[in-house]
Design brief:
By secondary structure, this protein is α+β, with helices and mostly antiparallel strands. Helices cover about 30% and strands about 10% of the residues.
């Protein structure tokens, strides 16, 4: 699945590796819009993620979404700081 900037696996300005959200200053949406998009992605049956930034991720997309949103290993909360509500 191609996720573009909605779900990435790395960025030159991020110290985090693996599934994550772009830093808030790149975001043009609200928390509700971001959460709605992640819910759609998590519901898709795919195990190959082609992000807009970072390397290809192999594994269930639901797990990648969980990790990016702070529900799994990694620091998903860091990337949400400063988002508009």
């Amino acid at each position: 699945m191609i996720t573009g900037d909605g779900l990435v696996t790395g960025h030159t300005l991020s110290p985090v590796t693996g599934p994550q959200l772009l830093p808030a200053w790149f975001d043009h949406g609200t928390d509700a819009e971001m959460q709605a998009a992640l819910t759609v992605l998590a519901g898709l049956d795919a195990d190959l993620l082609l992000p807009g930034h970072g390397p290809v991720h192999r594994g269930p997309v639901r797990e990648a979404v969980d990790r990016a949103s702070g529900g799994g290993p990694g620091d998903g909360d860091r990337t949400r700081r400063g988002r508009r509500r």
